[in-house]
Amino acid sequence: MKLAIDVRMLGSGGIGSYIEALLPFFIKNYECTLIGNKSQLESLKLSDRTIKVECPIKPFSIKELLSFPKDISREINKCDAFYTPYCNIPQGIKVPIYTTIHDVVFLDVPGLASKSGTFIRKLFYLYAAFRSRLIFTVSNFSKERIEKHLKTKKEIVVTYNAVPDWFSQKEEVLLEKTEQILFVGNIKKHKGLSVLLDAFTKARKEGLKAQLLITGNSENFRTSDTNIFEKLSGEISKDVIFTGKISNEELKNLYKKVKLLIQPSFYEGFGMPPLEALSLGCHVLMSDIPVFKEIYQDFPVTFFKTGDSDDLAQKIITAYQKSDEEISIPKKYSFEKTFNIIHSKISQELK
Q1: Based on CB atoms within 10 Å of each CB, which residue in 51, 75, 97, 348 is the most buried?
Q2: Of residues 323, 265, 274, the one with CA closest to residue 298
Q3: SS3 helix, strand, coil % of the chain, rounded to 5?
Q4: Cβ contacts of residue 229 below 8 Å, gap of 6+?
Q5: For 293-347, how does the pLDDT look when each residue is reduced to its tens digit (9 = 90+)?
Q6: Are 282 and 304 within 8 A, CB to CB?
Q7: pLDDT (mean) for 64-83
């Protein structure tokens, strides 16, 4: 079977990591035509059956919707189907389309984008649902939200997310633990950083001797929540460190070294950092939002009341003391399982 796959989001956060982890399974089991830019395609290990098609058009652009190159769409239409790991679908595709919609956060969380930006994003979601034979998503929570907002009658299949095998491979070199806590995410309101900063301040006043590491560059963060910057420049500023832009390998080492990952989100479609951290022996403290309860209920994590900085502060102090204990996590999710579900559904559809 010939399958065209959009890889233009490789290297772009969670979606990029998702498709990167699934690609080896696709390449092994299909004759693949990969649509991406030159640098993305050159970085991939490909089989003799794989065709590379360079595409200069950015995802989620006007050109993608209205003037997608006909020579590229012709290559896609030579295949039996087209798969995209997100909700962007180029113009001119005539073969069956399969889509993974990870979440509908822009429709669920007010203020993440302007009114016009939210409207445009909803059009992309609706178009993806309209064009797709069926939709994949990464949690039952996301499935429920997609059904609510998009009102689609298309089948929505939950595949879950996973940690790539290379990420959790045990290595002989042991890294010494540091007196640090880690936050992985951006500064957008639904990630809960403001609540974490309040709780961290309270925990420090009660004797916590840890620093807080935030992945990324403070100057690159964008938010309408100005209180974040006021808190970052306040009394705890000397105890809060921005890592700057880091590689996957550097993030992996941080998980090994810190004593605790805190994920204070108000909203997620799945939430990958806790799974990454747990796979490397790092304890996790997380909000009790529905999707985290769905994904992590059977894992050795500590939950706190979402948005409650007092509860979070007390749980930080308690969980921080657990950091030297052995962690045993269930092998519940894998990208092989994710691929097998996608592969099975596409095969059934195309019979």
Answers
A1: 97
A2: 274
A3: 45, 15, 40
A4: none
A5: 999 998 999 999 999 999 999 999 999 887 666 667 778 899 999 999 999 999 9
A6: no
A7: 95
Residue range 22-46, pLDDT digits in tens: 999 999 999 999 999 988 898 888 8
**Contact at 8 Å (CB) between 136 and 159?**
yes
In the three-class reduction of DSSP (H, G, I as helix; E, B as strand; rest coil), residue 290 is classed as: helix
**Which sign does the torsion angle of CA 188, 320, 276, 334 carry?**
negative
Residue 175: band (very low, low, confident or very high) from pLDDT cuts 50, 70, 90: confident
The Cα 35–Cα 349 span in angstroms is 22
What residues form DSSP beta bridges with 285?
262, 302
What string of H, E and C letters represents the secondary structure of the chain? CEEEEECCCCCCHHHHHHHHHHHHHHHHHCEEEEEECHHHHHCCCCCCCCEEEECCCCCCCHHHHHCCCHHHHHHHHCCCEEEECCCCCCCCCCCCEEEECCCCHHHHCCCCCCHHHHHHHHHHHHHHHHHEEEEEECCHHHHHHHHHHHCCCCCEEECCCCCCHHHHCCCCCCCCCCCEEEECCCCCHHHCHHHHHHHHHHHHHCCCCCEEEECECHHHCCCCCCHHHHHHCCCCHHHEEECECCCHHHHHHHHHHCCEEEECCCCCCCCHHHHHHHHCCCEEEEECCHHHHHHHCCCCCEEECCCCHHHHHHHHHHHHCCCCCCCCCCCCCCHHHHHHHHHHHHHHHCC
The rounded distance, in Å, linking the Cα atoms of 332 and 336 is 11
d(CA 95, CA 100): 17
